[in-house]
Write a structure and sequence with these properties.
This protein is an alpha+beta fold. Helix content is 19%, strand content 28%. Strand 10 (185-192) and strand 11 (196-204) form a beta hairpin.
Length: 206
């Protein structure tokens, strides 16, 4: 009996090693600290904006990247330190004019894409000016999306319901999406009445 039990354990170990050798790797996930931080931000009392008439003065208290308030203009050094870019990834590109596009990571999870201006090279992007960030599930198996996205606009994030968008932003979410523009920001939410928010785009007007 003991020999059979040992044989079953050995077989399980061999099968696990075989899966790893075939490229099966543990999927990255948010740390407990990150999840708690993001969840805390989502539970903050929303800023009240009558009629959904957002102005530039309303943005600083309502827009968060990670657990940090965010406003344009900003360089990559301004965002939460848990955000990273893999400069050597195949989808990272830098034009001759210094415009860089890349996958944006948070805690090692792919949370969207970022476009930076004034980047001298693929490895020198820290001082690059953020032009646009698109938060969404990229559908990557090697770098899955996080269980909670590191963006919150007045308590709304990826996965928030259309009802929550209406309650928190004062604007109805439909197939055409929701777009709020101020003097320095364009904040766009895409989704549907049934599926809620599926994409959040932050664009600098400057």
């Amino acid at each position: 009996m003991k020999l059979r039990k040992f044989g079953r354990i050995l077989l399980t170990v061999i099968m696990s090693l075989a899966l790893l050798s075939c490229g099966e790797k543990p999927k990255p996930e948010l740390s407990a600290e990150s999840y708690t931080e993001l969840n805390t931000i989502l539970k903050l009392p929303p800023v009240y904006v009558p009629g959904g008439n957002w102005t530039e003065a309303d943005i600083p208290a309502a827009l968060f990247l990670g657990a940090k308030p965010f406003t344009f203009p900003a360089t990559f050094t301004f965002v939460n330190s848990k955000f990273t870019i893999d400069p050597k990834a195949s989808d990272t590109q830098v034009t001759a004019e210094g415009v860089m596009t890349a996958t944006l990571l948070y805690d090692g999870c792919a949370c969207g894409t970022i476009t930076l201006y004034d980047c001298p090279s693929e490895t020198d992007y820290i001082s690059g000016k953020i032009h646009e960030i698109v938060f969404r599930d990229l559908g990557r198996s090697d770098l899955p999306a996080p269980s909670l996205f590191p963006v919150a606009f007045n308590g709304v994030t990826i996965g928030s319901s259309a009802e929550q968008v209406k309650d928190n932003l004062g604007i109805a979410l439909d197939a055409a999406g929701v777009e709020i523009q101020t003097s320095r920001h364009i904040i766009r939410l895409d989704g549907s009445l049934t599926g809620g928010v599926t994409k959040i785009t932050l664009t600098s007007v400057l």
